[in-house]
Structures are given as C-alpha cells and as structure tokens.
Amino acid sequence: MSSTPPRKSGNPAKNNGTMNAASQKQQRQEERQAKLAEYQRNIARRKRNKTLAWVLSGVGVIAVVGLVVASYIMTPRPVSYESANGSMTIEGVETFEHQTLHTEDPVDYEQSPPAGGPHSYRWLTCAVYEEPVRDENAVHSMEHGAVWVTYDPAQVTDEDVQKLKSMTPDTYAILSPYEGMDTPITMSAWNAQLKLDSVDDERVTDFFTNYWRSNQVPEPGALCVEPNGGWPE
Description:
The protein has 233 residues and is of the alpha+beta class.
C-alpha cells in the first residue's frame, strides 16, 4: 500500500503575490528614505552655503567700511576758520581806508600787493594759483571777504608754499606768487595787510581768523567763484 505524499498548504500563486507586495513596499520605503536623506542633505548644504554667504558678506562690509574710514582719515579736510570779523588785534597788521570803485583801467595801488581800492568789475575766482594774478581782479575778491596770500618765489621754498596751501581755505581765499615783495609773505584783506618773514609765524592763522569772510567788507558774502568771476589770463 503506497503512502500518499503530504499536501502543501496554501496557494503558491497567492504566496508569491504576497511576497512581491512586501518586497515592493520595502523598496518604496527605501526609496522614500533615500529621498528624505537627500532632501536633508540639500537642506544642510543650503544652510552651510547661506551661512558662508553671510560670513563673506560681513567680511566684505567690514572691508568696505574699513576702506571708507581709512579714506576719510587720510583725506585732508578743507581748512576753515571762525571769522572774528576784524575784532582781533594782531601785531604788525596795517589798516587802511580805501574806498570801493569799479574800473577797467590799470590801477596804481598804494600798497604792493594792494589791500583795497579801485578794482575791476570782474572778481578773481578764489583758488590756489601757480602764476601771478591781476591785482585789479584780486582786489574785487577781497571786497567780497576773501583773504589774498602772496609769496615771493625768490624768498620762499617749495616746502613753504606747501605749508601755505595747507593753511589756505578752499573758498574765499587766494594764494598766488607775487614777485618783488619786501618780505617773503604778505597777507591782505580789504583795508588790512600783514607782512611776514616766515610761514611758521602763528599770525598766519590769526590773520585768517580775523579777516576771512569778514562782514566788515563792502560786499560781505558776495560770490568768490564763477560765473562772473574769472581766472587769470
């Protein structure tokens, strides 16, 4: 009597389908985990890049600020004086009583350089000049409150001229050479003049303080630049 082989339980096709479904589910989970891991890596990378960008930006801002500050510190500031409007007493200053008059004729001034009197209709643009300027135009600028600083090139050094430039305001002031003076330096304002032997004389700044943009001139605050002003021909 032959024995009957034992029967296998379940449906093979069904079992295979269940295994395939489980395998696919696991695969999907792994894919989701891989995508999640990649997403998290991207997020972390973006955060690092953003942090680095902020750091570099901060360094750049600091560098720019440093350059601006350094430039501000190293750039010479324009010279300015608080005008005493002629109220100071300065040793050596001569004063005069010239009257204002416009003319286009050459003027034979009492002082050399002049310190007021008849002058051209056209004032001289206030600036630093390397060549001599016309007296009649410079006097008109002094009528507006300018200080005219003149130096004899034969009696001063290049260093002296540079010092004078550093003390001369960039407005309402004229600096120019003037040959044949009896002193190395002369400072002139309307109806006032000071002759100096040295650029290091403290009266240079005293004169500027007392007469620069003074309200005691015939036309205080009138223009000292173009369009009606001019440059020496």
